[in-house]
Amino acid sequence: MLVIPKEHHADAAALAQADDGLADEVLKSAHEVAVLDGVSEGGYRIVFNTGAGAGQTVFHVHAHVLGGRDLTWPPG
């Protein structure tokens, strides 16, 4: 699942620098998505790819909410 704010910020770093409370809203929304998707109790991961080297291909900040399976570490 994705959490995508309407307000434009190119990536998570830009979102953090904006300091307008939107980062907090995105994280709260990610948790709500995890609850609604039924993965919150088993554990989930919130991922922001920031920059092309990290795999970012869409330059509008968005959070990936991953769960419902075993998530290994390190990812990728």
TrEMBL record:
Active site per the UniProt annotation: 62 (tele-amp-histidine intermediate)
Molecular function in Gene Ontology: catalytic activity
Record-linked SUPFAM superfamilies: HIT-like (SSF54197)
InterPro entries: Histidine_triad_HIT, HIT-like, HIT-like_sf
HIT domain span: 1-76
Residues spanned by motif Histidine triad motif: 60-64
Protein name: Histidine triad (HIT) protein
The species this protein was found in: Nonomuraea gerenzanensis
